[in-house]
Structure formats: C-alpha cells, structure tokens
C-alpha cells in the first residue's frame, strides 16, 4: 500500500512524514529523489550540461539550479525538454525505493509537494493532503527558511490552489492546530493504513 502525501509549501508534509515514520512507516521524499537524479555523475546531468553548456554547471561540477530555473522559466519548451529527461528517471527511482520499503514496512509514504501537479499520484493507492490556511503556510515558511514573502507567494502561486488540492484528497490532516492534534490524526490514519481499512 502506497500513500501519497502532499500539501503546499510549509503545510507540514515533513512533520507529518516524520510522525508516520515514528510509528513504523517507511517514506520516500520526491524532492530528494529529484535532486539525486541530477547529481554529478548522473546521465541526466550530463544531458543537461550538453544542452545548456557551462552556464548551468557550478565550479564544483554540481547543477546550477538558479541558472537552469531561469532558462526554463524564460522558455517553456526547454521545461518540456528538461522534464522529458528528469521525470522518467525520478519515476524509476521512486518506484524502486517504494518497492524496497514496501517489503519491510506495513505501508509506505511518497511525500511530494507536487504529487498531483507532476502526475506522481498515478504511483500511489491513496492520497493524503496536509492542510493549513495559506496565511499559516506563509508564516511557517518565513519562520523556517531564509526567504522573502514575495518568494513564498511566488511558490504558492505555482502550486495547486488549496481547494483543488483538497478536492483531490482521499484523506486530509488538519495541521493548523498544535502538534498534538496532528499526531492524533496521524495515529488514527496509521491504524487504518495498517489494516488497509480505507
Ligand atoms: P513542509 O514539509 O510541508 O514544507 P514542514 O513540515 O517543514 O512543512 O513544516 C513547516 C514549518 O512549520 C516547520 O518549521 C515545522 O516545524 C512547522 N510546523 C509544522 N507543523 C506545525 C504545527 N502543527 N504547529 C506549528 N508549527 C508547525
């Protein structure tokens, strides 16, 4: 059983995934895997370097994410190309990790901020949305990261609106209150997922 966990920036996905992890669930973070496939030595990084040249590679051989982001922001066709290179590799690696964890956990979580937007929901049996109001997302992200309010608002605008995300959820955790309340909801879902009573 694979549960896709999603929610906007600062909603509490990592917090919720850790709480499930403490109860024995295995989890994979799609953002980590997305970074792994463009690490030095990976074929995807070689393909990106060949297409865009030195400008997208840092001196230490890692990907210059800011430069690449600018290129695909300016030209949507380059984004389509980039995704054709990275998405199949991300998918393949996610599936391998989920399969490995499935063998040793009662159920596994795929934690992905863009679960619906990227089509990764096709890889899961159920979806769980971690939900907080937008003002709370903004406040928590500003408290956690060294970013400006404008940067957080730009990320919020690029993600699925809250009501659309909620409409697509099988399960929802309300993370707008204290952590105790969140842990209670995680425990209740853990019982259901363990018993596959969904
Ligand atoms: P995401 O992974 O969705 O970006 P995080 O789990 O990192 O979100 O949570 C964002 C920030 O909010 C973190 O600093 C986290 O400690 C804090 N946080 C998460 N849940 C709560 C909560 N219920 N109450 C207060 N702060 C919270």
Mean pLDDT: 95
- Give, in spatial order, the strands making up the sheet with the most strands: 2-3-1-4-5
Strand composition percent: 5-15%
Query: What is the fold-level CATH name, i.e. the topology?
Result: Rossmann fold
Tell me the CATH superfamily: P-loop containing nucleotide triphosphate hydrolases
Low-confidence stretches: none
Please state the oligomeric state of the protein chains shown: single chain
Describe the structure.
With 198 residues, the protein is of the alpha/beta class. It has one domain: P-loop containing nucleotide triphosphate hydrolases (Rossmann fold, 3-Layer(aba) Sandwich), CATH 3.40.50. Helix content is 54%, strand content 12%. It has a 5-stranded parallel β-sheet with strand order 2-3-1-4-5, sandwiched between helices. Helix 2 packs across helix 5 and helix 4 (65-74) packs across helix 5. The radius of gyration is 18 Å and the shape is globular. It starts with a strand and ends with a helix. Bound molecules: adenosine-5'-diphosphate. Adenosine-5'-diphosphate (ADP) binds at residues 7, 9-15, 140, 144, 175, 178-179, 182.
């Amino acid at each position: 059983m694979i549960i896709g966990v999603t929610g906007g920036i600062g909603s509490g996905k990592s917090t919720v995934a850790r709480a499930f992890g403490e109860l024995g669930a295995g989890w994979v973070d799609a953002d980590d895997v997305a970074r792994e496939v463009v690490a030095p030595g990976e074929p995807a990084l070689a393909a990106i370097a060949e297409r865009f040249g030195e400008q997208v590679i840092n001196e230490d051989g890692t990907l210059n994410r800011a430069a690449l982001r600018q290129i695909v922001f300016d030209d949507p066709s380059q984004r389509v190309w980039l995704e054709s290179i990275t998405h199949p590799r991300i998918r393949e690696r996610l599936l391998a990790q989920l399969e490995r964890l499935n063998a040793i956990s009662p159920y596994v979580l795929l934690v992905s901020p863009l679960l619906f937007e990227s089509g990764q929901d096709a890889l899961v049996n159920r979806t769980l949305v971690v939900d907080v109001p937008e003002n709370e997302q903004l406040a928590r992200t500003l408290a956690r990261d060294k970013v400006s309010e404008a940067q957080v608002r730009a990320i919020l605008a690029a993600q699925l609106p809250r009501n659309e995300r909620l409409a697509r959820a099988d399960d929802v955790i309300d993370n707008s209150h204290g952590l105790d309340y969140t842990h209670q909801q995680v425990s209740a879902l853990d019982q259901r997922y363990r018993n596959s009573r969904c």
